[in-house]
Design goal:
Length: about 375
């Protein structure tokens, strides 16, 4: 099986070839056991013709019939099947997600045995394939496999590779089924505490005397039902022998605006691309953390902006904007749009470039 993966063509070329491939076309590969069986068959054939022994001819006919029967039965197994996929609602770059494959045997009388399904995508071969031992006539079975998207953006799926070694393992026969779909991969998320928002933030963010979500600590109190487990002060809890939680002062600003510089310099190279992807990941991580704290969040880039996501709403609009955010040429890059004067502003990107946008903080949103 490893030999097969190593000899596969590049993902994009393979996907384009899959679209051109006819549904009736079959592929055949002799397995290692099959090669040994064929060599033994040839040896028996040579011995039978040299000696004229009827028993050897009988054995030769039996072995040849197994080869023919293998081709006929494997064709019966892989035809008349339909495969579909169920994609996850959210997928993040660098994080493993589960993709479910559903196999349905559309044949009215014949079952399908020993089927191996590979989901073909443009980011490379599937790490693990789904195996179905037996699918009864008209029945439907499902299995899931793990895939780790490498980069953010749209991940294109082109189809499936349906293979079998049934019944004797002499040959591996497969066909390809076209089933195009796409999965939007969100930016990679950083670990908690990796984003220092206070070092690059401006705006109204002073704490108030109201208890709520914020950065400043208001005090400690005993644990009550419904408190977030992440607010437990474990050192004080261990010293007192009872649960103690941290209360925080609510910030005055209820909106966070994230500025991300996507202007690509003329002589930018691979390190700049890596830095830009890290900035996108920082923006996504900060947006999710701020929404959890009860702030409304929006992201501004050069010439574009995300929808304003209110506190308590799903973060998908912001994550979708960051997943599809491209780098634009510095010569053609536009300025940042205006934003609310009362919003807390966090800049992510090159400080020298973002410093030119500080004057826009004084302009209220149009």
């Amino acid at each position: 099986m490893a030999e097969l993966i190593l000899t596969q063509p590049k993902p994009r070329a393979r996907a384009s070839r899959l679209r051109r491939e006819q549904p009736w076309r079959r592929h055949l590969r002799t397995t290692r056991e099959g090669k040994a069986f064929i060599m033994v068959t040839l040896g028996v054939g040579v011995a039978a013709f040299n000696t004229g022994n009827n028993l050897l001819f009988l054995i030769l006919g039996f072995m040849l019939s197994l080869i023919v029967l293998s081709g006929v039965m494997s064709e019966t197994v892989i035809k008349g099947v339909r495969v579909s996929r169920a994609l996850p609602q959210r997928a993040f770059a660098g994080k493993t997600c589960l993709i479910e494959l559903v196999l349905k045997n559309q044949k009215p009388r014949s079952p399908s045995y020993s089927l191996e399904i590979e989901d073909i995508a443009e980011d490379g071969p599937t790490e693990r394939r789904c195996y179905f031992l037996k699918v009864a006539p008209g029945a439907e079975q499902s299995a899931a496999y793990r895939r780790t998207p490498k980069t953010r953006g749209t991940l294109q799926f082109s189809g499936f590779r349906v293979a079998t070694r049934y019944p004797f393992g002499i040959f591996e026969k497969w066909r390809t089924l076209s089933a195009p779909s796409e999965l939007l991969v969100y930016p990679a998320l950083l670990e908690a505490g990796a984003v220092d928002e206070d070092a690059r933030s401006t705006g109204v963010d002073a704490p108030t005397h109201r208890v709520g979500h914020g950065a400043e600590i208001a005090g400690l109190r005993g644990y009550e039902t419904g408190d977030d487990a992440r607010s437990i002060h474990w050192k004080r809890t261990a010293s007192l022998g009872k649960l103690v939680v941290v209360e925080r002062q609510s910030d005055a600003s209820s909106q966070l605006t994230i500025l991300i510089d996507n202007a690509r310099p003329e002589r930018a190279d691979a390190p700049w691309d890596a830095t830009f992807e890290l900035a996108v990941s920082e923006a996504a991580t900060l947006a999710l953390a701020s929404l959890h704290r009860g702030l409304a969040v929006e992201v501004l880039a050069r010439g574009s902006r995300s929808p304003l996501v209110l506190a308590g709403a799903l973060p998908d609009p912001v994550l979708r904007f960051l997943a599809l955010l491209p780098a634009v040429s510095a010569d053609q890059a536009q300025g940042f749009g205006s934003y609310s004067r009362a919003a807390r502003v966090v800049r992510i990107g090159a400080p020298a470039v973002l410093a030119a946008t500080r004057a826009q903080e004084q302009e209220p949103r149009a």
